[in-house]
Design goal:
3 helices; 34% helix; alpha+beta; globular; four-stranded mixed sheet
Amino acid sequence: HWNYATRDLFEPGTAVLTPGGANHLTNLANMLNDNKYSGSEVVVAGFYANEPNPVPPAVALELTRKQAEVVAEFLKGHGAHKLGTFSRRKVVALGMGATPSPTDPPLASHVQVLLFAPR
């Protein structure tokens, strides 16, 4: 899996990719395109850390949902969902709002991209 601080991908407090963010995601799309396992899925999850700028839970949920969707659509636009000529893998976007991230130690606001592949 890959973790990206939202400040490295998006303009502050938005779901608008920066040029540097697009560069990070292009590199990620290339890695995903190198790992085309049949039956694999990609999950993009956005997390909001309420410090140092707390926002209402509904705002955090909507922002992380939109950020995850932007990342998922960017990856699809760079072919990360294609496994072959006709086969595709799911790319799922999840906005987790201020739900604590499962990372240890907890990270600031970030987007996680996970590649699930059958064994």
